[in-house]
User: Fold these one by one.
Assistant:
Number 1:
Amino acid sequence: MKTGTFTVPTDLLTRIKAAQNILCISHVNADGDAYGSVLGMVWMLRSLGKRATAAMPDPVLPDFGFLPGAGEIVGPDDTADDYDLIICLDMSSADRMGAVYDEPRFGAIPLVVIDHHITNTNFGVANWVEPRCAATAQMLVVLSGPLGIEVDTRLAQCLLTGIVTDTLCFRTSNTTPEVLEAAMCMQRAGADLSDIVRQTLNRMPFSTLHLWSRVLADAHLDQGVTWVTVSQAQLRQAGHEGDDSRLNSILSSINEADMSAIFTEKLGANGSPAVECSFRAKPGFNVGELAFQLGGGGHAPASGCTIAGTLDDVVGSVVPMLVAERRRQLAHTGATPQH
Amino acid sequence: MKTGTFTVPTDLLTRIKAAQNILCISHVNADGDAYGSVLGMVWMLRSLGKRATAAMPDPVLPDFGFLPGAGEIVGPDDTADDYDLIICLDMSSADRMGAVYDEPRFGAIPLVVIDHHITNTNFGVANWVEPRCAATAQMLVVLSGPLGIEVDTRLAQCLLTGIVTDTLCFRTSNTTPEVLEAAMCMQRAGADLSDIVRQTLNRMPFSTLHLWSRVLADAHLDQGVTWVTVSQAQLRQAGHEGDDSRLNSILSSINEADMSAIFTEKLGANGSPAVECSFRAKPGFNVGELAFQLGGGGHAPASGCTIAGTLDDVVGSVVPMLVAERRRQLAHTGATPQH
């Protein structure tokens, strides 16, 4: 578990060692790294003989019910008020805590941050932000060293899940040798990589196939940009929310395109139409800036935003922006077409 | 590069160390591990000051042109006859050498085998067969140790490509900690994992999207078996051979199915219709035996065969066999539905 590349801040270590009753929380719209790191932290603290509770703002997604401890995660209404430390995991800013952070009860409890997002606002009294890690769970593999923790199977399964989901099983460009080393250590500690892949990445309902059939029938390609639209009618017919992450990975592998987009029709709260845009860029290209200009966020290879308007309106205005952005990047940044 | 789990046979090491002019060959219908291991072996031998030539029975696939040394691979007509050793890489039996093995010229030259297939026939004068390795390229990472080779970027890129392609980027069930360790060592030696993923797994022509749209429109699900058919007309419309490996990985992730199949219409040499069947099974299920009974081969999670007949005929006879096979395995082998 020695990964000398990273250093855990002393003040964070001191606070964790001193605390006895700790609340571990993660972010709204939780993903595999949120679940993996919050549960992993709980197992680490318990192995040190401390009391630890995992809490999340939203109900636990059934897909992550396989994680050891998932059944113990509590919601905003079931937290106590006698914690002596709050650890925020995988959260780039305080607003990502959602309803699970109850200011009146928690305001006086020290709060520390462990996160790998470069955009982290350092909102804790101690903050360990390590953007060179591909997942917050990877940071916890590192943390197990100075905390003197012998990683057991439960902990390993949680941490490897965070690493596998955030890197799409080692396919993202931030998959460094240190990521593979952390994953290897978790396998050796008992985590089942094959099971994690099956439970998280390799899962989708049969109806997705017919949804994709309809969506891909209208796949477009124009000047190095490929895109599809997903309507509410198509989603209703499928009976679920689709699988954007997998569809994104398909679109972003098209040889003839350097940028890709999925436009998904949303029903706004007030009934007015809106479109969720999900962008991907190949290495050397950047879709982060455009998403930011459009009121969203993300980073160079993957970003997103939500725009008011109908599918036709939004596609009609955003696709030319993507085409122009790609052309600008080809001309000014030395990016080269990937096909 | 110390992976103490595996032992290189002494007679193989002795023969490699003694030889000075070596022909490295791999199999017909070459895949990423064939290219990666044959080129990796050449770079290893050259770094020891030996002469080494890579030869393959078929022309080099353009997709693997990015591998260092791919441009130097020769075909059956361009081999010499003064080699003092032939190394067969990733080949389970002698017939897999195809036309690149010229018996009259090569019959007297000692031939050794390095391969990870459990079905290997040990057809060399020295044979290193290690089924616990997920790729022959992984075995070469091990071999670099006793040969005292300092792995450089070219060699690392070749070997990591073999590992990534044979494990679908660490998603197959034989991805052990030793696989991740070998991959990590290759990254540290200069291999670019992200580039390899982009060049091998994350590539497909835009026209595949419209092909998939038509194919997935007729996706079926019956009693835990899901399948699609691909007709010659659909392939002609797409203008290429499709991407079975990616389509297989989509079908095998369907929650409601434990077995999946792709039936692809082929035109037999004599004009009579035939169907290529590609099967996948979830953990605990086995499609290897059925493929073997049908005249094909493979192993428990992935197998295939080619059957004479029209698409309708073959689907009509094979799907009930898959359904019956799944039911039998549920009843007799303790396999449990994965959904």
Number 2:
Amino acid sequence: MQTPHAPGIPVAIIGCGLIGASWAALCLAHGHDVTAWDPDAEVRDSFAQRLTGPMEQVRALDPSLTGTGTLRIAGTLEACVEGAELVQENAPESVPLKRGLYARIIAAAPSSALIASSTSSLTWEELGIGMADPERLVTAHPFNPPHLMPLVELFAASVQVRDRARQLYEGLGREVVVLNKPATGHIANRLASALWREAVNIVAEGIADVAEVDRALIHGPGLRWSAIGVHMGYHLGGGAGGIRHYLDHLGPSQERRWATLGTPGLTPEVCDLLTKGVEAATGGRDIPELERERDEKLIASLKARNARDN
Amino acid sequence: MQTPHAPGIPVAIIGCGLIGASWAALCLAHGHDVTAWDPDAEVRDSFAQRLTGPMEQVRALDPSLTGTGTLRIAGTLEACVEGAELVQENAPESVPLKRGLYARIIAAAPSSALIASSTSSLTWEELGIGMADPERLVTAHPFNPPHLMPLVELFAASVQVRDRARQLYEGLGREVVVLNKPATGHIANRLASALWREAVNIVAEGIADVAEVDRALIHGPGLRWSAIGVHMGYHLGGGAGGIRHYLDHLGPSQERRWATLGTPGLTPEVCDLLTKGVEAATGGRDIPELERERDEKLIASLKARNARDN
């Protein structure tokens, strides 16, 4: 992994929940100065402490990240964005709430500051329309947990703004993927949603239990897709003739398979099956323990990637 | 990874293409004796040579696999299955063809031999109904490339046969996932198919290019699903309340997202977009080079898993 160390820049973090903490850890470890604000005073007060874990994980992943920027907690949004070059907004998924924040940010931040939303479910159009200066807004959706997962999905209306945002996130060691037009769920959550629908269907139809579906994914497609994309996978599946051969010869059978995929509803019965199946799959491990295991596995995979690419 | 070294058992490989070669390499490296047969004499004659690459990869992954069984090429199916304990069938995906092979296998193999089909697209019911002794048949679908990918998806009608088959494949270092009932595409290819449909839709709708969709998958959901399953992922997505909380609070928004997923057809226009997008994504790398890269990445990921689990 390339982690170019740009000179520190002033970053404002709006919203100090999990995503805000993750962004802050990443920025600080890369030597940027971070000012953070949240409307909830308790959330602000615990923020510095909640950065410790993510900071350790970021450094475990890339020991060269020895620099640390300065962290400040601001008492108001206006004080937070003063002098910022990047404003990363991590507020709840509400259009009116976010639009209200953008109006205040525009009034208080330098006119050159980039305004970036971490939104997972709203689009640039929903957020930007009616905004005073919509070209300054980008959607920059990280994948949870953002300080470990490399992906940032980016949409900007202007090529200049897009390129500037891309450079900023690549400077944070992120893998930036660009959308040509806004879409609900961007790319990754659309793909995840489509896969989960069939994963729910397999459980609802009684084909396999929750734990077995998850194991099939981890040891099969998940592992493959951590190495090679789905389109490229079908290119290799076509043998010497590649994707063209695949589409010509196996396209019709894929279309038939698509027709057999399920469209389950999340009925009370299906929700019970999923809940009981997940409980069985946890084997008594609680959520913090499951998160620790996930993070350890992610860090091991990412270290292997870094070792391979360097 | 646990790689229990069972004492060598006689394995018959029916069909000497890529999948047959992969199974043979895995069995030999684990100390089993392999007899292989293919109706095509040229395919038989090149078989031993085509095992070299997979054998090297299997040993790169697990240097403790120093044992090697004996490889023999049989001139007839009947000679191939004589004395076999496991018969692994890797014939083309045709029900009449496979049924014809099973009849010959049953006539020539020991009555105790397990008959396993590597079929990716046919079900146990389609293959087993009308067979003389259907309880001996299991579907045991490996994920490509099978000597690297851990997953084997298993269905058997009898619990005893299922457990015996599971033990055999686990002895080959495989991660065995059990289906409760047969399904077209088993689990993994159903999930892959569902995800690819949306990946095609994203390209067809102009949301993002092929290369960007693949990168989003590799650095986002693919990486995550190599560490944690999709159901468990939503359990963690529900915070302290887990999957029950997620379903109660975010279930309705998932159902709304499902409704926005695409149902593209593989029209000539869409096929052109996919083909051109894949060509651009290859950056001039040919298929053998792309396969080498994929295998290197898989081996690095699997080594990281082994190091973590041991």
